[in-house]
Amino acid sequence: MLSEQELNDYRTKGYMRREGICPPSEVQQIRDTLLGLFARKAGYEEGAQYDFSGRDEPGKMQSFPSMHDPSHYVPELRKTTFHRRALALAKELLGEDAALYGEHALLKPALYGPETPWHQDEAFRSPDFEYKELSIWMALQPVTEANGCMQFLEGSHLGDVLEHQSPGGDRSLHPLECCGDFPKAEAVPVPLEAGDCTIHDVRTLHYTAPNTSTAPRLAYILIFNVPPVYKPGLRKAEWLVGRRTDSQERKRLWYRKGGIAVEVLRRLPQVRVTNGRWLAWAAIRLSSKMRQRASRPRP
Ligand SMILES: O=C(O)CCC(=O)C(=O)O
């Protein structure tokens, strides 16, 4: 799907733009499906749906509705042309081992939808692994700077993971913002038509502005990776220590009430047992999560 020139460009810049990854009829169908999931707050109790930029409080209107893995609630999403083409692109960019790591839907409300702070996705990941990962961000209506199209810092994926922090120092909030030194003024906004996408590397610095338009901005993002390589102590990520969002808390309670079995059944068909490196990654992640939990002070 990609020319040598496009591959080289991606490697140099850390992002690219693709037109028409999704046919127009499917754009409408995916849009309606995701809006329906937001409207009925699907997955809220499981921690899959949450406010991306504020606290989740009962009865409070979300400032930036966000949802992880919508295909857990509507499995047909995985059968779309978008999923199929996105996987093919990921394999070209990351290698044949590439597989879907997660999905994200982000609904930036009209007029007041807040910004997504500058960040590198790797800042959210455990610092004990080396990653090869990318995100395919599809617009479900036209996007420009005015309603929050993606903006990138060219070449930023070639440097280190910079210092990040929780906005206002509040570690119960979902976003992380980059507080390292980088030339924000060189940001490149990438406007798109509905059904177009951007692709960015896990280390590329990116940002979206507040939605000042009169219509909501909806994006559907697919994240792909190859098995991360365990390198204990590779980086430090102080900003992750003690971070606990409201949605993580709901997920923990849901797991305890038996949700863990549901989660295992949902993920089982996707388990990548064909390659020992996926199994090693899963086992190391599980044991480090259990160690973290054991060392956490009891309330
Ligand atoms: O859509 C947004 O506002 C931000 C998306 C983002 O940060 C990402 O896809 O990594």
TrEMBL record:
Entry keywords, A to Z: Dioxygenase, Oxidoreductase
InterPro entries recorded: Phytyl_CoA_dOase-like
MF term (GO), any: 2-oxoglutarate-dependent dioxygenase activity
Pfam families: PhyH (PF05721)
Transmembrane segments: none
Gene3D superfamilies on file: q2cbj1_9rhob like domain
Name of the molecule in the record: Ectoine hydroxylase-related dioxygenase (Phytanoyl-CoA dioxygenase family)
Gene source species: Pigmentiphaga litoralis
